[in-house]
Amino acid sequence: MPFFKRSAKPPKRRLDAGNTTLSKSNLSLAGTGELGESVNNALVKLKLGQHELSFQDGEWIAEPGSQSSSKDGVEVNRLQKLNAQLKEENNYLKYKIEVLLDMMAASTADCNVMEKELDTLQSQKQGRRVAR
C-alpha cells in the first residue's frame, strides 16, 4: 500500500507576487523613456518612505530633493570612518596572529632539535653502558 498517492493532474500554484510582465506602462527608464535604450544605461530609482535613492555608477546616491538626505550623508560618513577603523583593527589582529604563528613555529623547531639531541645523548649513554 503506497503512502503517497499520485494524483492525475498536478496541483495549481498561485502566484501572489502579482504581474511579472514588463510593458511600456510599468517600465520607466531615465533619459528618452524608450525601451530600445540599453538596460545597462537605465537609471534605477528607489523610493523608501521619505528617502529617494538612485543607482549611478555602481553606488546608491540620495536624491537632493529627498528629506533627510543630509542626515543620511552624516550617517554614511560616520559609518565609513567606523568601517575604516574596523578594517585597520582587523589588519592589526591578522598581523598579530601571523607573528604568533611564526613564534610558535620557531619554538616547535627548537623543541624538535632539542628532542633529537636528547635522543642522541641517550643512545650514546646506553652505548657506553654496554661497552663497560
List the defining traits of the structure above:
elongated; mainly alpha; 3-stranded antiparallel β-sheet; 132 residues; single chain; 1 helix
Q: How is this structure best described in words?
A:
With 132 residues, this protein is mainly α. It has a domain at 70-131. Helix content is 48%, strand content 11%. It is built from 1 helix and 3 strands. It has one helix spanning 69-131, and strands spanning 44-48, 51-56, 59-62. It has a 3-stranded antiparallel β-sheet with strand order 1-2-3. The termini are far apart. The mean pLDDT is 78.
Unreliable sequence segments = none
Number of helices: 1
**What is the straight-line distance between the termini?**
87 Å
Helices and strands, in N-to-C order?
EEEH
Overall pLDDT level: 78
**Helix coverage percent of residues?**
40-55%
Radius of gyration in whole Å, from Cα? Answer: 35 Å
Lateral strand order in the biggest sheet: 1-2-3
Percent of residues in beta strands?
5-15%
Structural class of the helices, strands and pairings?
mainly alpha
| Shape by Cα distribution | elongated
Short overview:
With 132 residues, this protein is mainly α. 48% of the residues lie in helices and 11% in strands.
List the SSEs and their pairings.
Elements: E1 44-48, E2 51-56, E3 59-62, H1 69-131
Antiparallel strand pairs: 1-2, 2-3
